[in-house]
Amino acid sequence: MRRLRPESEAEVERRVEFRMRRQRVLRRRPRPLNLWVVLDEGALWRPACAPATMRMQIRHIIEQCRRPNVTIQIAPLGISGQVAGDGSLTLVRFPQQGLQDMVYLERPDNAVYPTRRAEIEHHWHIFNTLVTEAAPPEQTPRVLARILSTY
User: Which residues does the UniProt record annotate as the domain DUF5753 (predicted)?
Assistant: First the structure.
């Protein structure tokens, strides 16, 4: 986070704490949320932090692969940029009937929340294409271990 935006230590800590809290929903009882991630392999090869931190992050992702409610796939180099463009794509499907899916597009200096049905369907199509193009989830720990060995 620091390399992209030089911010105060307090702001960095606030963002880290927010992200840590956000992860707790994956462990809550009795019903943890389901998470399906397609991670761009290039993001793992482009260190955004110190090597020790990258090792810690990759080990954490490997641990998450063991969770029954978490599916992680790695999109091979070059695929996600062709399919999804730049930035991250988050899709939220709510369990309650009648609530519209939500799309969140995180960009370096802003966030976009498309709300039109056609836009939402377009982003689901992008995600489904990434799922199809990415390596199967069973291969993820092996791919991550290979990348981890380079740090």
Answer: 5-146
